[in-house]
Amino acid sequence: MENIIILDDMSYVRYRVKEVLEEKDIKVYEASTSFEFFNKLSEKKDNIDLIILEIGLIREDGIEVIEKIKEKNIDIPVMILTKMNTRESFAKAVKNGASDYVLKPFDNRTLLDRILKLIKTNETKKTTTNDLVNEKNELKKQNTSKEVEEEESTQIENSSNLPEDFMYYFMEQLAIAQENDGYLSAIIFTLIKNTNEKEKIDVKQSYLILTDIVYKGIKDIFKDPCLLVKHGFMTFLGVMPSYRDIDLVKLKEKINEKYDVLSTIHSKLSDYHIEMSFVSYPQDGEDSQELMDDLINSMKYKIENNKNSKEEKQ
């Protein structure tokens, strides 16, 4: 049986959703406040397949709720079911990881179809993740060694596996830029090891720690409406609405300056340097796929150049 938790301060909405889903043998947990919601989520989170959330709560800020879900690294898809029919609320919800955005009043059949689709997608994701974990554990047992940078290059092999929250927000902001003859830029940057020393898979926890240090140190540069997300072990992606070439130059300087500061605090970071690539609308393309392909290919080229350069020095 699938399990869903819904946060909505209107009891009749919770009743309607529960009535629709229980016909499909889906268990629904109800919450009318964020306090009640997080208590139930903490208790049931290992069994929850989907979160349904109203961001237009009467006495609370629903956007803050979805932000807390993201901060807590809760890996459960979130559907926004709301009366808030504004571009701003949609953008904020997607930016914070919402998988779907449904407006009230809703059609029962349409809502059910979209809920079932999200649950199925999440089940597929869990299966894939478990397979990857099992594969990595098996590699550990065999003491197989592999360069982290080679694996990072695989992580950004193409634009089809980029984080959903990044792609949703980029496409939303691209539509806004196209509609208003505006500008939009995206960045990808990754940490590159300064030597050609091989790294074993079983020490990758240290890379996750370094990534978290860099993310927390640099994310303040990406203030709203910008977005920064982590991707893979050592890579970051950003969306910068209204950014032009001069803004990108300043952003690059700020990132390098902040990284230098972080390196003095965390000496392990001095073993790496940052490589960055940018794309901008409209000068680099007008189609989202074209722009993302250019962004990924540019970073792959830089990673390969770094690898060749280190090999030549050996």
From TrEMBL:
<keyword id="KW-0238">DNA-binding</keyword>
<keyword id="KW-0805">Transcription regulation</keyword>
<dbReference type="InterPro" id="IPR001789">
    <property type="entry name" value="Sig_transdc_resp-reg_receiver"/>
</dbReference>
<feature type="region of interest" description="Disordered">
    <location>
        <begin position="134"/>
        <end position="157"/>
    </location>
</feature>
<dbReference type="InterPro" id="IPR039420">
    <property type="entry name" value="WalR-like"/>
</dbReference>
<comment type="function">
    <text>May play the central regulatory role in sporulation. It may be an element of the effector pathway responsible for the activation of sporulation genes in response to nutritional stress. Spo0A may act in concert with spo0H (a sigma factor) to control the expression of some genes that are critical to the sporulation process.</text>
</comment>
<feature type="compositionally biased region" description="Basic and acidic residues">
    <location>
        <begin position="134"/>
        <end position="147"/>
    </location>
</feature>
<feature type="domain" description="Response regulatory">
    <location>
        <begin position="3"/>
        <end position="119"/>
    </location>
</feature>
<keyword id="KW-0597">Phosphoprotein</keyword>
<dbReference type="InterPro" id="IPR011006">
    <property type="entry name" value="CheY-like_superfamily"/>
</dbReference>
<dbReference type="Pfam" id="PF00072">
    <property type="entry name" value="Response_reg"/>
</dbReference>
<keyword id="KW-0804">Transcription</keyword>
<protein>
    <recommendedName>
        <fullName>Stage 0 sporulation protein A homolog</fullName>
    </recommendedName>
</protein>
<keyword id="KW-0902">Two-component regulatory system</keyword>
